[in-house]
Amino acid sequence: xxxxxxxxxxxxxxxxxxxxxxxxxxxxxxxxxxxxxxxxxxxxxxxxxxxxxxxxxxxxxxxxxxxxxxxxxxxxxxxxxxxxxxxxxxxxxxxxxxxxxxxxxxxxxxxxxxxxxxxxxxxxxxxxxxxxxxxxxxxxxxxxxxxxx
Length: 149
Hints:
It contains two helices and nine strands, in the order H-E-E-E-E-E-E-E-E-H-E. By secondary structure, it is α+β, with helices and mostly antiparallel strands.
């Protein structure tokens, strides 16, 4: 499948980088608890394949009681359980965009392990922007506040 080389690269490069920052990993979900908050990161694939971005948000720590009465244990909470208006995305470009062309693209080299590794290295080099957003709300050059518009 198109995703397999990329998945190998995320396992080798992204997951250790996230673990080093204190995130637990349930791929494609990453979560860490800091100062009574859950910091949530999700690797979202383009629905047509060939690209991805990171989506991230935070919420209070603790289990989540849904409006329909289900209880979601803290360890299982991910970005999908947060208010869409409170999320942000990390993109490959510095133009705030919701266009798939601005995702991290690998459609042209999905079978090339080295280029997949390089793409994930690029993503990891931008992670400090995600961490700064969690720490102080700073919107870095590759961070796009979520919007469906």
